[in-house]
Structure formats: C-alpha cells, structure tokens
Amino acid sequence: MKRVFIALSLLAWTVVSAQAQTSNSPVVSNRIVLVIHGGAGTILKSQMTAEREKAYRDSLTFALKRGYAILKNGGTALDAVEATIKVLEDCPLFNAGKGAVFAHNGKNELDAAIMNGKTLEAGAVAGVTTIKNPISAARSVMEKSGHVMLIGKGAEEFAKGEGIEIVDPSYFYTEERWRSLQKAKKEDSLKAAGKAMKGSAILSNSGQNPDHKFGTVGAVALDRYGNLAAATSTGGMTNKKYGRVGDSPIIGAGTYANNETCAISCTGVGEVFMRLVVAKTVSDLIEFRHYSLQQAAEEVIMHKLGTFQGSGGLIGVDRQGNITMPFNTEGMYRGYMKEDGTVVVKVYAGE
Amino acid sequence: MKRVFIALSLLAWTVVSAQAQTSNSPVVSNRIVLVIHGGAGTILKSQMTAEREKAYRDSLTFALKRGYAILKNGGTALDAVEATIKVLEDCPLFNAGKGAVFAHNGKNELDAAIMNGKTLEAGAVAGVTTIKNPISAARSVMEKSGHVMLIGKGAEEFAKGEGIEIVDPSYFYTEERWRSLQKAKKEDSLKAAGKAMKGSAILSNSGQNPDHKFGTVGAVALDRYGNLAAATSTGGMTNKKYGRVGDSPIIGAGTYANNETCAISCTGVGEVFMRLVVAKTVSDLIEFRHYSLQQAAEEVIMHKLGTFQGSGGLIGVDRQGNITMPFNTEGMYRGYMKEDGTVVVKVYAGE
Lengths: 351, 351
Known about the structure:
Two copies of one chain form a homodimer. The first copy, chain A, is of the alpha+beta class. Chain A has one domain: (Glycosyl)asparaginase (Glutamine Phosphoribosylpyrophosphate, subunit 1, domain 1), CATH 3.60.20.30. Chain A contains ten helices and 13 strands. In chain A, a hairpin with a 4-residue loop joins strand 2 (110-116) and strand 3. Chain A is globular, with a radius of gyration of 19 Å. The two termini of chain A are 29 Å apart. Chains A and B meet through strand 3, strand 4, helix 5, strand 7 and helix 8 of A and strand 3, strand 4, helix 5, strand 7 and helix 8 of B. Strand 4 of chain A pairs antiparallel with strand 7 of chain B.
C-alpha cells in the first residue's frame, strides 16, 4: 500500500520549470556549490524500506540537479535555491509544499523564507494554506512587497496579486500525512489519559516524539559571481497548535545568508532554533570570532543545541565554497553538488 | 481638539494591576535596572506642543514606576518588563495595544514578544486583532504553549483559552490613528498619480515618511537575581500591507535577552532590523568580540543601520547593569530607573 502510494505520488510530482537567469555581476570564480536538506530526525535504516530510501535519494538527486543546472548555466544562487526548493515542495516525500504535515486543526499551514547574501534582502511567508510554492511567495515578498514577512491571509492576498500559483487547500492532502495526524492525536489522548495515573509510564507525546517534529527542506548556494543565498520551506509540525510558526521563516533563526560569511538553512525542533537564533549565530561566529564555517556550525549544532535539549541540523556554504551539514539526530536527508558536477546524497549518520 | 483627545484618552487609560512576584533565585546584587522606549522617529520639538510632550513624559514616567516597583519589591525582570509594557499598551499615546496604528485594510494588527534571559525561553504573537495586551499573550505562549510563536487566529484562540483578556477590535480605534491612516492613503494616491508624471517632485509616501513608520514600545530589565528580560510590543506601521510582520515579535531581530550578554528591545524600520537581526547581533558582538554593551549597540545602530538606509534605535541593559539607548533618528521616547530610584525620561536627541 505504502509502495503504491509513493510510486503514485512520485508519478504525480509535477516538475515546475525553472528559468535560469544569468546575473549581471562579474564572474569571480568557477566555484559553484549547491547544498540541500530534506529534514533531520529519527531516520533509521532499520525502519526504512529499500524502495522508500531510493525514492528519497532519487528525489534529492533530482532537486540537486535542477538547482545545479541553473548555477552551471550562469544563473544566480538566488534562482538556484528557489528552483531547488520548488522541486522539494512539489515532492510529497518532504514536509513542505505538497507533502506538508497537518496541524492539529486538520489544516496544512506552510512557512518559507529566502535570503539574498549579496544585499541582505530577505522575504518570508508564514501560516499560508493556499500557496502551492511558498518559497516563490517568499521571494515575491522580498522583491516586491517592501516588507520582509507577510503572514496568513495577507500573505495569500499579496501572493495572488503577484501571480503566484494559488491552490485549493485540498492540494496539500496526502493520505500518509493525514494518518500521521490521527496517530499523533491518538497518542495525545493516551498521554492525557496517562497523566491522570500517577507514576504512569506513558511519557511520549506528539511534542516530544521526533517522528512528528522534523521535516523541512532547505537549500543554500554559491554562484560564480561570489553570491550566497539561502532558502527554507516547511509544513511545520504534525499536530502543532493552530498558528504556530517555527524557525524556518524567521530570518536569523532557520534561514540566513550574507556574502561576508555564509548561507545557512536549518531543520529540527524549531522552537530551540528560534531561541538560539541558530543561523545568525553561525554567521556571527564566523564574522566576529573568525571561526571556519564548519567550526561555527558544529559549535552550534553539536554543542549548543544539546544544552537546550534541541535536535536537528543545518546545511551551510561559505563564500569560499566550503560546505557543512552537521546534525545531532539519527539522520538527515542531505546532499550537495560542487563544480565537478558529482552528485552526493546521504541519509543516515556516519554515511 | 487634540488637547481634549489626549486628556480624555489619558483619563480613560486603564491601569492594569501588576502583581509583583518574588523570585526563588538568590539575590546576587542590589543592582536593579529598568529601561524603556516608546518608539523612535521624527520627533521634533518644533512639532510638539508643551502639553503633548508632557503627556508623553508623564506616561513614560508612570510606566517606569510601575515596572520599577516590581523590581524594588523583589520581583523578576520578566514580571517587570511585562507589567511595564502593559502600561504602555494601555496608553493611547504609543503605537502598541490601545494606541495601535491602522493597517491598510483598516484593522489594527498587533505583534509582541518577550524573552527570559535566564533560560532563553521566548514567546511571541503576531497579527492578532482582539488581544488587549499582546505582551501577556506572548508570555503565555512562552510559558504554556510549548511553542515560541503563534500568529493570527491561532494565537487568539490560544490566548483566550489561557484566560488572556479578549476585546472587540473596535477597542483599538482611536481617532488620531484613523486620521493617520486616511492621510497615508491620500499620500499614496498622490504618489501613484505622481508616478505617472515624469520628473514629478512627489517623492514622499507612507513607506518613506518616518512619521508613519515608527512606534513600538519596549522594556528591558535587570533584577536583583542577576536575570535579564526583554519585551517589545507594537501596532506595526500605519497603512502597512495586511499581514505584515515587523521585527518586534521576531526573537533576535527586535527582541532578545540572554543573561550572559544583554537584553535588547528595538524600534524603527522593522524590515532593516529583521535583515540585520539587530538584537542578536548586539548580543553576539558582546559574546564573541567582547564589546561593551554600548560599543555593540552603537556599532549596529549608529553605523550598520545607516548603511542599509535603516533608522530607529534600541534600548539595552547588560548583566552588570550598564544601559544603552542609541538611535539615529531625531528623537526616541525613552527613560530608565536604576537602584537609586531616580526617574530619567528623555524625548529628543542630545537631551
């Protein structure tokens, strides 16, 4: 049943054509880099079928190739990350766009952000329910609204006016995500019942079970003009409270790009990432303490995050083309392509 | 007419009783500090009546005394900043709570955030239209929701469930703010008409006129247990796009507190503060580059902000009780009280 679901979903996966636009900036290097993630969490080989794992790896590869082609053809980092995220948003396997999880009220509430490292311009949308590709709405906010963040109906009205594709909320229905919501609600009921029993062993709940929590897609890129960009998109948490916004659309928390330092996209328990302002902290460790990208990212993800019972990971690229993909969970869907054109895709820790 | 309005408004200004709660933490010093702001912008003595200036100064003094009494009686920084902000939210003079400006759609959309420097716990609400004191809703989000940020109807539903006072949106109607919206809309029309004329001299618009842009209230405090807290609340921008969220409710942008460094609340052109992640940058300059609070705040407000055509200011206090109140505009409503109990209130630059 699940196999059929995945196969059909992937067949139905509409590929959005992305126009590669060349930049007017001078070429500064042949270095081009694209790094992506599809969420971190309890991703265990023991719980994965070979078929499902292949579907994830194929999808990540497809998304990487889409964004990489833009960079290769002289396109900008900004175009590359937007196009890559659109591919991942359209794929039902990831918790963003089409594959978004359900909030407690049975709706899919989507958030996304994009940032241009050259100008520090940024755009974000949160709590939208009818925008097919929230990342494109975020880009429109950045480029055309005069604002950085628009939420809810206001964001949808703006996006519609800008010609962004609007869909019926039913577009985001997937059987698998709906089942996850029912399961999470059932666990919550059990937990509530358990609370009444002193010394109950029932401790898990949808807020603590990493299975429900993780899932975000992200992309960061370096183009041949020396510009960095970052983009993140998410469907939030299964069974989350109506109106909850996580770190993904928050500039500095889940998404940040600055040509002087790095481009970062995070995935994990959004609340901790917001409190620690993770992405900007990585950038500031590079700028103010002269850490390398890897040192900075590991300091935050492998040390600081755990102190606050946070889990998740991030992807990053710096202006020299160095990359980092640290996470403190069992796995993180991730991959990258550099100027040699080799596709690298990984799922589990230690891979 | 305006005099009567101010006088009546201040009479109607409901004083919310704030319970001073003592903390369980050990007293580490007799140092207590409360710093507040009521917005920055084109605040010129030439455009101010003596009566209006007095109303502002009296209101700031009243708010300071409210929060200070809590600190003096052994209350926490968190309680002090919340109580102070509630006073400012209830005062029609400031753009937050009762005095919130109108968005383009004729609604008052409110945002607020609060952060506990001891635990790095944080809470925020955005785009709410029926919560009398958004800062208290933000505190409930922090303490009871398991999330950091709730927006729109979801935030209102949660707040209602927590017993936070809900009001009819008409509560936020003030004649002065309504006139400002009509004026801004008229200017936009003139601007749109002007755009059609090549070489038109009409350049101003509601997005560029600082008169429409500024207005936020903020408080930061240090309590005798050595804990810092920050809180910010705003009604946004007059004539802003429906659904726009600025820096105030964004942890790291307009609001941030960390016992290891400082507590910060910002006011100004929210979009630039978001792109620069201002509050966290000040904290990181202290943590990673060992700047003093004043050096860090001035670096961001007096140098960096201008590079991005940003204007505004911030208030800050560090763990040693040092304070800072830099701004790059003509004025900023601001003030502070320290352990000696003297009230200091300032309005213009150079004061």
